[in-house]
Amino acid sequence: VDLVSFAHGLPKAELHLHLEGTLEPELKFALAARNGIDLAEKTVEEVRATYDFTDLTSFLAVYYPAMRVLVTPDDFHDLAWAYLQRAHAQGVVHAEMFFDPQAHTSRGVPFDDVIAGYRRAVVRAERELGVSAELIMCFLRDFSAEYAMATLMDAVRYKSWIVGVGLDSDERDHPPAKFAEVFARARQEGFLLTMHCDIDQVGSIDNIRSVLNQIEVDRIDHGTNIVEDPSLVALAKERGLGFTTCPVSNSFVTEQMKSDEIVALLREGVKVTINSDDPAYFGAYVGDNYVALAEEAGLAASDLVQLAINSFEASWLTPARRAAYV
Ligand code: ADE
Ligand code: ZN
Q: What general EC class does the enzyme of this chain belong to (predicted)?
């Protein structure tokens, strides 16, 4: 079989996916019409023309404003359901999906409406696609620690629907330590922990050291520049820590896929995984990311299989459910 069929056909888990980053222009127009919202762009092509990202900041400047079409529980359901169908078509059998409640509560949408819609899609995916799905709530690191703590208190009421918490948005000037207390409380409440440690941002290797040693996260999102410090790599390997990397996203926000770092971690036996991040904006769902990395780095079929195995091993499936896949 050809690379695309093989990569898409491999059963896999997706562990780094922002639901708000799956908003395709076509759905954006449909939701805008449904909610009576006027959009500046009038065609899908005009929307895509705004996707000329050069770094994380220029991506986020397009990503957040687009969310104003998401208003009702149905909107959040439709967004997640569209993603789950697309992911299923590229071999995803388990998805742990980030969502950004503060991108909605900060503009007046109730937390309860966001989670109600997303939860309905999770339940539907299990029933209609046989895809198991979980939600990971992210705090926006450019908002205050107090606002994050208040959002955590909202989430506590929905503990059984949220497997863990993460941290995303712009890392510059917002290091992990800013949220140490919030993450300690989240741990106490029973949530698993992950955090974006974005590549090529100031002080990033120090941020990785701090999330490993102070916050003691259960996983790291991006973070492949850990290869700069072999002692940290050894620590991550010893702990069986998973890394969720996003090759095509990297090529937009850093101008390279970071395939050298990803492959170095793979060869080292670290649980590195391949994911899509914001597929509607970067034009690649998870199977497409396997293909892009394989082409750039000249990976063998056995490497792609190992990456898929890693996706289950780094997942937050319970051991009994994980055993169904690996
Ligand atoms: N929020 C959505 N996508 C993100 C990314 N790639 N990095 C940081 N925050 C994000
Ligand atoms: Zn991300």
A: hydrolase
